[in-house]
Amino acid sequence: MKNRISWRVATVSSARWETASARTLVLDVPDWPGHLPGQHIDVRLTAEDGYTAQRSYSIASAWTPAPSATGAGSAGAPGTVELTIQRLDDGEVSPYLTDVVEPGDQIELRGPVGGWFVWREKQTAPVLLIAGGSGIVPLMAMIRARGEARGRQPFRLIYSVRTPEDAAYADELRLRVRENPGLDVHFVYTRKAPDGWPTPPKRIDVAAINSHGWPPDFQPDCYVCGPTSFVETAADILVALGHDPKRIRTERFGGA
Amino acid sequence: MEIDGNALAGDLSEVFATDATVAVFTCAGCGHAGAVATLRVWGPAPGAVGRCPSCTDVILRLVRTPSRLILTLTGATRLELPLDA
């Protein structure tokens, strides 16, 4: 079987909380072949009775062939992969990965997989990233990859969160806006905005995407990731504003 | 839970030699063409059902048993895979 992507065993080398309910696992993966930002891995858990549950998670880290001495935040070292997992309280797999797994534990994974919702350094167009909640994860991998490669492609991120406390990677994003020229980040707060924020909390809308995205004339590559209803709203707005549907890539995950 | 065809990449990699989520399907029901990654998928379950994002007809079914992987593609008249992914 050529090119067959097989399951392998990774070891959790460290873990950190990004928000109160989202945790990053740093995994050591033997013979990791590298990945593109936006790709996923499948995680498989097997119970003692043989029951298995499998889920697909976006990779949060950028992959660099050699260790980076100057990376802002976490670029990932060769052979390591970072996943940021949002706990779904009624979930079968995520609560285990956020609340039970500890450094030293082993988990079974397959990947990297998926070649559609990815960004490649050779893409020269401006990029618009639109994240709803934990949809930030694959988009963060793209921001990190651009930062590590010192890419010059203009990047804009619109990141919708319920409250400031729900924003993952907030400190790193602030740092990267300063240190990665050509990166802009705009937050949309849907339930509670920070003190002094110019607009009351609201869902993502035409005004937010029109003001903080790129004009359609720039022919940006657009990546939208989040819950289904969010992705549909944002993608519909992009099309209505005149963006080419062929340049809009989406990745959606479950509802509540 | 509703997801999309991106999440099928791992299982499809056990069937196809190249990444099948970038392949373009043509819907047998409405003629819509799009990347497998854009299929609407309901799961996780013992089997994944991928529906056309345009007309919601079933394009593919992917069922995993302990010893077999069964891919049903009756909803697609065509599947076009890039040779150089």
Automatic annotation (TrEMBL), chain A:
Record's superkingdom? Bacteria
The cross-references to PANTHER family, in alphabetical order and at most eight, read: NADH OXIDOREDUCTASE HCR (PTHR47354), PROTEIN RFBI (PTHR47354:SF5)
* Stored InterPro entries: Cbr1-like_FAD-bd_dom, FAD-bd_FR_type, Flavoprot_Pyr_Nucl_cyt_Rdtase, FNR_nucleotide-bd, MRET, OxRdtase_FAD/NAD-bd, Riboflavin_synthase-like_b-brl
Its keywords, alphabetically, are: 2Fe-2S, Iron, Iron-sulfur, Metal-binding
Q: Required co-factor?
A: FAD
Query: Does the keyword Iron-sulfur belong to this entry?
Result: yes
Q: Please give the Gene Ontology molecular function terms for this protein.
A: 2 iron, 2 sulfur cluster binding; oxidoreductase activity
All copies of the FAD-binding FR-type domain together span 5-119
PROSITE patterns per record: FAD_FR (PS51384)
Please report the name of this protein according to its UniProt entry.
Putative oxidoreductase
Automatic annotation (TrEMBL), chain B:
InterPro entries per the record?
A: DUF6510 (IPR045423)
Q: Which Pfam families match?
A: DUF6510
Record protein name field: Uncharacterized protein
What's the source species for this entry? Actinoplanes missouriensis (strain ATCC 14538 / DSM 43046 / CBS 188.64 / JCM 3121 / NBRC 102363 / NCIMB 12654 / NRRL B-3342 / UNCC 431)
